[in-house]
Amino acid sequence: MGGGSWSASDWDSYSKVSASKPVASVYKSRGMKDELNPYGVKLRESCDSVDNPESNAIIVALDVTGSMGEIARNIATKSLGILFQEILDRKPVKDPHLMFMAIGDVAAGDRAPLQVSQFEADNRIVEQLTDMYLEGGGGGNQFESYHLPWYFASMKTSIDCFKKRGKKGYLFTMGDENPPGPLTKEHISKVIGDNVERDYTAAELLQMAERSYHVFHIIIEEGNGCKYDGVDSITKGWTDLMGQRAIRLSDYTKLSEVIVSLIQVTEGADKAKVAKSWSGDTSLVVSRAIGDLTVASTDIKSGVVRL
C-alpha cells in the first residue's frame, strides 16, 4: 500500500467540518472493524510506487484507553494535517507512508487491544484512522499494551525503505502509563494469531522493532496515568527501557510537531534550529521534548543510528 499523494485542500475541507465535533462523532465505530484487526494479518506493506518512489514508513500508535480519547480526536481533526504537510514541506524524509495503530490493554481483557491501518500516502489514512474503535478500556495494572505495536512492526510489516535502501522507518508509541510487562505467548496468539514458543519481555520486543525502525515512546504528561502515578516515576521507567528515546510531551496538541522534529533530528538536523523553526509556544514544547535527544551520526546504508 502507499500510492497516491496527500491533498492539503481536501484535508482543510474535512478539518473545518470535523474540528468542533465531539470525539464520539469523529470516531463512530462501536467495535473493531475487520480491516483493522491484526489477527491473521500476513503483512502490512509500505511499497515504493510511481507516486512515491522513495517511500519511508512511519507508524503512529495511539493509546486509546481511558483519558486518551481527546488526543485521538485532536489527531483526527487537526494534527494529522500538520504531520503530513510538515513532513512534505520540511522533507526530513521523502515520500512518507503513514500507518496508525490503536493501543488497548490485552492483559486487562480489552476486546480491541491492537488495531492497525494500512500504510497510506494520501488522504485515505483519515478514513482508516477514524474507523478505529475507541474502546476506552484498560485496567488497574498501570500499563497498556505498548509492546504489541513493537511485535507487529517487527513481524508483520514489510517496508521498502529498509528492504531496498537499508533505511529504517519510524515507530512512535504514546501514552500516559508505565512500560508494559512481558507479552505472553497466549496474548500473541489471541491478538495476532501467531503461535510462538515463549513469552517476550518488553526489552526483547523493543530490540526486535529497532532492527528496522527508529522507535520512540512519547509520554503524554496530561494523561491521567501521569497525574496519578507521577510523571517523573513513569518517565524513569521508560528511560530505563529506552534511554533518550523516551520523550516527554507537555502539550498533546503539539504531538505532530514533536514527531516531525524527532524525525528531523534523527535524520541529522540541528536540534536547536529545529526547535526555533516552530513559532510561539510550539517552539517551547518541541525544545523541551527533544532536549535530551542526541544523534551523533546516522549510517544510512545499514539504518543504524549511533549515539
Number of helices: 13
Q: For the terminal residues, how far apart are their CA atoms?
A: 32 Å
Number of strands: 10
Q: Please, what is the average pLDDT?
A: 91
Main-sheet strand order equals 4-3-2-6-7-8
Low-confidence stretches: 298-307
Largest beta-sheet details: 6 strands, mixed
User: How much strand content do the residues show?
Assistant: 15-25%
Query: Which percent range fits the helix content?
Result: 25-40%
Globally, the shape reads globular
Structural class of the helix and strand makeup? Answer: alpha/beta
Radius of gyration: 18 Å
Give a brief rundown of this model.
The protein has helices at residues 8-18, 23-26, 69-90, 124-130, 147-156, 160-165, 185-191, 202-209, 224-229, 231-242, 255-266, 271-276, 280-290; strands at 44-46, 56-63, 96-103, 114-116, 157-159, 169-175, 213-220, 246-249, 297-299, 304-306. The protein has 307 residues and is of the alpha/beta class.
Kindly list the characteristics that best describe this protein.
10 strands; 40% helix; disordered C terminus; alpha/beta; single chain; two-stranded parallel ribbon; 307 residues; 6-stranded mixed β-sheet
Account of the 3D structure:
It is a single chain. The chain is of the alpha/beta class. Helices cover 40% and strands 16% of the residues. It is built from 13 helices and 10 strands. It has helices at 8-18, 23-26, 69-90, 124-130, 147-156, 160-165, 185-191, 202-209, 224-229, 231-242, 255-266, 271-276, 280-290, and strands at residues 44-46, 56-63, 96-103, 114-116, 157-159, 169-175, 213-220, 246-249, 297-299, 304-306. The protein has a 6-stranded mixed sheet with strand order 4-3-2-6-7-8, with helices on both faces. Strands 1-5 form a two-stranded parallel sheet. Strand 9 and strand 10 form a beta hairpin. Helix 1 (8-18) packs antiparallel against helix 3. The two termini are 32 Å apart. The model is unreliable at 298-307 (pLDDT under 50).
